[in-house]
Amino acid sequence: METVKKLVKSTKFTGTDGPLVCVVMDGIGLAPENEGNAVARANTPVLDYLFKNYPVRKLKAHGTAVGLPSDEDMGNSEVWHNAMGAGQVFAQGAKLVTQSIKSGSMFTSRTWKELTDNCRSNNSVMHFIGLLSDANVHSNLDHLEAMIKQAKSEGIKKVRVHILLDGRDVDPMSGLFYVERLEKFLTILNSGADFDAKIASGGGRMVITMDRYGANWKMVEYGWRTHVLGEGRQFKSAAEAINTIRKETNNENDQFLEAFVIAENGEPVGKINDGDSVIYYNFRGDRAIEMSMAFDDADFDKFDRVKRPDVIYAGMLEYDGDLHIPKKYLVEPPAITGTLGEYLANEKIMQLAVSETQKFGHVTYFWNGNRSGKFEGETYFEVPSDIIPYEQRPWMKSAEIADAVIEALKSGKHNFLRCNFANGDMVGHTGSFRAATMAVEAVDLALARVLPVLDALGGVALITADHGNADEMYEKGDPSKAKTAHTLNPVPLILYDNVSGGKLSLKNIPNAGLSNIAATIANLLGFEKHESWDESLLSL
């Protein structure tokens, strides 16, 4: 019988008398003040006051500090919330896949063998669907090229690639660069051998396929019709499609490019048919789950698939470990156990997680170590996100999230509350500087409403961020060139405490990162950190 995981009561601090709130200001990092820093340029009287009058520490929020291969990797909200909730750093996404490719374990896995055996026995096509990018946020072009090369070496005769243009975690107009790189790679592989590899379809990541959290299933349907059915506007090449659509629509960001199909003699070159194999090569889960469901689920009802081809389908990773989405995958996910949420549940700490749809999974599923089900004593509250471009409504659902947190605080039902304000990240991704300043201001206003309620209840807050985004809205400081990607900047950790009389403070720990937050929360609730967690930042 498994022993229940328990924490040890602290002998130094019995815990806050009132509730503890962890506020994640998504995408609000710390950067030098400059023209492109929408955080610094925003009107934020609450944050200004907090930075001046309360303990603040800078936390690392990228690269090796969150389990990625190098400090050049910005990472994503998935791994950042994993680190916050797990209290320690696990090898993540790109690093896992890179290790699997280098060791060869991917290509000896049961799933890879099934995919390739299927193509050889049926003389059929191996399809790859994913983000054409090297940002290491959702995918890496190196991984795609390695798999195509391996497929050829194992006798696969025909490969088709369905590309999603990034423009979000990389330069907004870099799509042609990545297309040219892939086309050159495929041309070399196609020469001098019985091998046929082509780009088959594509479109912008925020137009087709890569929806998340069920926010807009129309995107997934559009992707299905483009990739699977071969429906859509036809072009001779991906480069022709990108250049033509850009010119016609004045599109200056690849993530919003309309879908296209590559055709020869009026016929799509890469429809997905019975007997084919399909790999979704993104390693990040949130924007891969819905298309995986469309391929895997016999009783799928989110849209009319018209035809569900009989294929072998696999994801790069298991995108949801509890719901087992997809059913087949190439690389085993990190086994994240002993999370803060699990330990607090075992201590009968009543927990609440609140966000809007766009970040709801981050404060629930990712925070709890890629776990879909709730722990005992956990309550989740989701505010449905708007389905419009976020620069048109940069306040998003900050007011409604604040409403939910305030109501929960006043109810007295929860000892620990965590919430995520998505504004700085989602609006930061649009590249609109003015909208980004408004997004940050909306978060500041939400804090102005929540913190007095917390004071009245004798509570304490940790205010932080998972990564930067709105803190750098221009590429290399050039106002003519919007930046839509996450940043490599540190994030703040603010200890908001008006009840201890200055007893509580934050320590300076070299290279402290997001993984130090879990132990800090445990200390504030009156427990010692678990031995597997990184050090607490709380100073008593």
Task: Describe this structure in a few short sentences.
With 540 residues, the chain is α/β, with parallel strands linked by helices. The chain has 17 helices and 18 strands. It folds into 2 domains: 20-92 and 335-539, Alkaline Phosphatase, subunit A (3-Layer(aba) Sandwich); 94-331, 2,3-Bisphosphoglycerate-independent phosphoglycerate mutase, substrate-binding domain.
Describe the structure.
The chain is α/β, with parallel strands linked by helices and 540 residues long. It is built from 17 helices and 18 strands. The longest helix is centred in the last third of the chain and has 24 residues, at 433-456.
